[in-house]
């Protein structure tokens, strides 16, 4: 594995598979790497904690970082390049190319974290410009992020094939996330409530087909003073908007706080008409 701070012309001659991350790697990231290995492409993993996607400077400061552990993990995973750019290299001095995430970017996660998705699209677009990959992969855990990146790549006809990595969960159903490291043992138990909300809502919705009633039921059934739910929605997966008569794929998204740490999760499923 080569550790680089800047992309070289030599690299741009190669066919690259890109895995952008913010580090503090876990099994979810490893599964993205496994996915990438199916292809005859050179694998580039970036680690860059992007300040533009944090609306709260405290959250940016607290975001877990462990470059030495990440380095060992990636070295053992036999990727080709670890790319850890500095902020100056990514954004330069007069950076202006802010990408706006539109109306969906202001809802759900974007409503609670104003500007977050503009920051995500801005860095993803910039990293794509630098790395110029053939393919890139993003995890499904950040469902709204994935939706917006796919929308952006599609609208702008970017010549990059996007792949989606499955959510990896621990044995209690908790979706793996770098932020889980910030939780105590008790917090990790409370965090498993996110997935229970999703499962209860799915089951109740499929039985009643009543969105509001099902959401209230899921919230009531899974009440826990150690988990504060920020939002719980059931949406059309293809539009990230309300369910309609035409909906065939639904997604349930949740965000909540455990011990002051923001966590998100989702499940998707087919809706039989
Ligand atoms: O999902 C993440 O880790 C980040 O949002 C991403 C896509 C690497 C952009 O900073």
Q: Could you explain how this protein is built, in words?
A:
This protein is α/β, with parallel strands linked by helices and 273 residues long. The chain folds into 2 domains: 2-165, Rossmann fold; 178-268, 2-Layer Sandwich (Pantoate--beta-alanine Ligase, Chain: A,domain 2), CATH 3.30.1300.10. It contains 11 helices and 9 strands. It has helices at 9-12, 27-36, 57-62, 67-77, 87-91, 109-112, 116-131, 143-155, 185-191, 193-208, 211-221, and strands spanning 2-4, 16-21, 42-47, 81-83, 135-139, 161-165, 228-236, 249-258, 261-270. The strands form 2 sheets. Strands 1-4-3-2-5-6 form a 6-stranded parallel sheet. A 3-stranded antiparallel sheet has the order 7-8-9. The protein is globular, with a radius of gyration of 19 Å. The N and C termini lie far apart (50 Å). The model has no long low-confidence stretch (mean pLDDT 98).
pLDDT averaged over residues: 98
Give the cofactors and ligands: pantoate
**Distance between the first and last residues' Cα:** 50 Å
CATH class of the largest domain: Alpha Beta
- Globally, the shape reads globular
Summarize this, please?
The chain is α/β, with parallel strands linked by helices and about 270 residues long. Helices cover about 40% and strands about 20% of the residues. The chain has two domains: about 160 residues, HUPs (Rossmann fold, 3-Layer(aba) Sandwich), CATH 3.40.50.620; about 90 residues, 2-Layer Sandwich (Pantoate--beta-alanine Ligase, Chain: A,domain 2).
């Amino acid at each position: 594995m080569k550790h680089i701070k800047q992309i070289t012309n030599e690299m741009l001659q190669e066919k690259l598979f890109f895995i952008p991350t913010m580090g503090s790697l876990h099994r979810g990231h490893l599964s993205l790497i496994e996915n990438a290995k199916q292809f005859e492409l050179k694998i580039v993993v970036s680690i860059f904690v992007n300040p533009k996607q944090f609306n709260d400077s405290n959250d940016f400061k607290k975001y877990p970082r462990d470059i030495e552990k990440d380095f060992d993990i990636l070295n053992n995973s036999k990727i080709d390049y670890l790319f850890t750019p500095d902020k100056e290299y990514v954004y330069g001095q007069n950076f202006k190319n802010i990408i706006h995430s539109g109306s969906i970017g202001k809802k759900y996660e974007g409503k609670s974290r104003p500007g977050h998705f503009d920051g995500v699209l801005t860095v993803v677009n910039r990293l794509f410009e630098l790395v110029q990959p053939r393919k890139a992969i993003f995890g499904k855990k950040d469902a709204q992020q994935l939706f917006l990146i796919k929308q952006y790549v599609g609208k702008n006809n970017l010549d990059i094939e996007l792949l989606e990595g499955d959510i990896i969960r621990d044995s209690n159903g908790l979706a793996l996330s770098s932020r889980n490291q910030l939780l105590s043992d008790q917090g990790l138990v409370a965090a498993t409530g996110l997935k229970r909300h999703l499962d209860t809502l799915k089951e109740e919705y499929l039985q009643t087909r009543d969105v509001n009633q099902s959401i209230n039921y899921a919230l009531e059934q899974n009440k826990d003073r150690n988990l504060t739910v920020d939002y719980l929605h059931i949406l059309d997966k293809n539009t990230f908007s309300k369910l309609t008569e035409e909906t065939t794929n639904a997604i349930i998204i949740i965000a909540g706080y455990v011990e002051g740490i923001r966590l998100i999760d989702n499940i998707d499923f087919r809706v039989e008409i």
